[in-house]
Amino acid sequence: MTPALTDTPATPRRTAQTGDIVARLVTLAFAASIILITFLLVWQLWSQSAPTRHKFGFAFLFTTTWDPVTEQFGALPFVYGTVITSVLALLISVPLGLGSAIFLSELAPARISNMLIFLIELLAAIPSVIYGLLALFTIVPLMRDYGEPFLKSTLGFLPWFKGPVYGFGLLTAGMVLSVMTVPFIISVSREALLAVPREQREAALALGATRWESTWQIVVPYAKLGILGSIFLGLARALGETMAVTMVIGNDPKIAASLFAPGYSIAAVIANEFSEATGRVYQSALIELGLVLFLITIIINGFARLMIVATTKKGSKR
Amino acid sequence: MKTWSLALAGLLLALTAPLATAQQINAAGATFPAVIYQKWFDEYHKMHADVQINYQSIGSGGGIAQLTAGTVEFGASDMPMTDEQISKLSVKPLHFPSVLGGVVPTYNIAGVTQDLKFTGETLSGIFLGAITKWNDPRLVKDNPGVKLPNADIQVVHRSDGSGTTFVWTDYLSKVSPDWKSKVGSNTSVNWPVGLGGKGNEGVAGTVKQTPNSIGYVELIYAVQNKMAYGSVKNASGAFVKADFNTVTEAAAAAAKNMPDDFRVSITNAAGRNAYPISTFTWLLIPSHIPDAAKAKTIKAFLQWMLTDGQKYAAGLSYASLPKEVIAKEVKQIAKIQ
Fold it and tell me: Looking at residue B309, what DSSP letter applies?
């Protein structure tokens, strides 16, 4: 009797354990495959870029000539274009996105909020080539005829707003990217703001805070991690965006101080030149650019991790 | 985008392969002649139901790479293979010109509706950044009666690697020693000035969007989109506007000195009516095809392409080969074993 009693609960426990082990192994295999894929990716980029890594060494990163005829390749103008357009995009989209997210989660009536969020998610789903076409036919002429001449006449004393105006260039590319990243920032930040417990808001209001004080000083800091996450998601999209950028950036691998000047981005040059790149060194140079883009992404992600760690520490001290 | 379409094509191939009993021949390469190649392979399949030729338009570079790797039966390219590229192949490839293309200067100048005239000197000057104004004396001299404005010239070029750029820069290298030493010719070059547009549509769009700009597009693209384009002075001193006849004329003029392997540039050709920025596009066929049945099929297809196939060219806006070249090519078919 007694052993039977102890046995009965033991049997389901044992099956549960084998189930656990199987689940554990299967999910572990899936997780390991991610590491394997990443490793293979880096290894491929690394081995295929061997000709240019050996030929140019680190100079590849710091030289500015991109000449397929004489096979002289330098990545700096592309790195510059990629970073500048992405930073420009965030300068515009972060305030816009965060402001919209606060409005949608804290202030807007539920019906309006739901309707707007539907539109925003629609924006996020539009293929980038469509953004590129819209930009080519609307933003480019608007920037050439109104936007850039206005900036030139008001802020023309700054080096960023000097020189001839084309409509195509770094500034226009940054603007298009900002439109493309803003839906991600709104959507993810709004989720993060909605996840803040009601008690936090109520407590702030009970202590005599105004609606805005409670939002800005209590709710937003509470949701900081999610908001930062949304920004880095947007940045990741901006760094890797290809079609929309290549249609408006001007595709000229030069480094100019002026934001009106045409530039070039890493993703754009790879997409443009890879299919007709016949020489071994030429192909290798484009693959090494891919490696550089990968490194930039890793550096920025690492930076994001550090920032998150730093801000959470501050939060726990409080 | 291209990898996607490749993946999709691969998937379709995998799905349909078990159903088809037909002889499958795979080819890949240049995008410029892709439209007529698809048409040819399609028409040929209608006549010979057991022959199916699949063509992937992945670019000339990709075509050469796949031919080198041995993943396709034959390749296609907008520029002849270099000696270095040929040396990597275990089987020597034969070049078969299939159709002809031309590249034309297109521009957008406020108040100018007439067709402009260009010379090698003015085109290279503009694209080098040496001629910066539309009312430059050199342009005014060639275009009497046209009111050219005192405006900065905005240059537009292709940003993607392209056979079109190869022909354009090959022509500029021939007519301008300056261009040859400073820039040279390739599918992509280090442009001294200008904005880059992706594809013919990118260049055309940028030119349309940018006042006082000049760019270059394929003749086919300009014809199909009814774009205005200028005429160019040829080697015998006449201003010639590109059309199918003047492009074919350029090939006919070059046919007299055609090398036996057909690897020849026909830019700046000498004929009276030859349009100077013209080019062949080539099929790259291995000189030895181990599968005897496939070898027979490919030879039969080439024979058809060079004769009956040529009549499809005009309808699809390609210039057809001159008969001198066709006669020479038919002889080359026998070299395939």
Answer: G
Residue of B1, B188, B195 with shortest CB distance to A250: B195
The pLDDT value recorded for residue B111 is 85
What distance in Å separates the CA atoms of residue A124 and residue A179, rounded to the nearest whole number? 9
Q: What pTM was computed for the model? A: 0.82
Spatial contact of B30 and B163, defined as CB atoms under 8 Å apart: yes
Q: Which residue has the tokens 């100019």?
A: A256
Report the first-to-last Cα separation within chain A, whole angstroms: 58
Q: What is the pLDDT of residues A289-317, one digit of tens each?
A: 999 999 998 888 888 788 777 776 654 44
B116 pLDDT exceeds 50?
A: yes
Of A68, A136, A252, the CB nearest to B205: A136
Question: Is residue A12 scored above 70 in pLDDT?
Answer: no
Is the Cα dihedral B316, B318, B321, B322 positive or negative? positive
pLDDT of B204-239, one tens digit each? 988 988 899 999 999 988 888 888 899 999 999 999
Which residues in A have their CB inside 8 Å of a CB on B? 65-70, 72, 136-137, 140-141, 144, 164, 166-168, 243, 246-247, 250-252, 262, 264, 268, 271-278
Q: Is the ipTM of this complex over 0.90?
A: no
pLDDT band at A152 (very low <50, low <70, confident <90, very high): confident
Task: Indicate the average pLDDT of chain B.
Answer: 89
d(CA A10, CA A99): 56
| Residue corresponding to tokens 């201003």 | B239
d(Cα A17, Cα B292) in Å, to the nearest integer?
Answer: 62
Query: To 5 degrees, how large is the angle CA B90–CA B92–CA B97?
Result: 140
Asked whether the CA dihedral A49, A53, A56, A61 is positive or negative, the reply is positive
Q: What is the pLDDT of residues A236-273, one digit of tens each?
A: 889 999 999 999 999 999 898 899 999 999 999 999 88
Contacts of B187 in chain A (CB under 8 A): 68, 273, 276-278
* Number of CB atoms found within 10 A of residue A5's CB: 9
Q: Residue A247: its chain B contacts at CB < 8 A?
A: 198, 202
Query: Burial level of A208, CB count in 10 A (0-12/13-18/19+)?
Result: exposed
- CB contacts of B64 in chain A (<8 Å) are 278
Query: How far out from the chain centre does Cα B91 lie?
Result: 25
Answer for the pair B304, B287: CB distance below 8 angstroms, yes or no: no
Going from the C-alpha of A120 to that of each of A104, B121, B323, the distances in angstroms are 11, 53, 60
* Interface size, chain A vs chain B, as Cβ–Cβ contacts under 8 Å: 99
* Percent share of chain A, pLDDT over 70: 93
Q: Which of B85, B163, B209 sits opposite A141 (nearest CB)?
A: B209
Asked whether the beta carbons of residue A275 and residue B61 sit closer than 8 angstroms, the reply is yes
Verify whether the Cβ–Cβ distance A251 to B197 is below 8 Å: yes
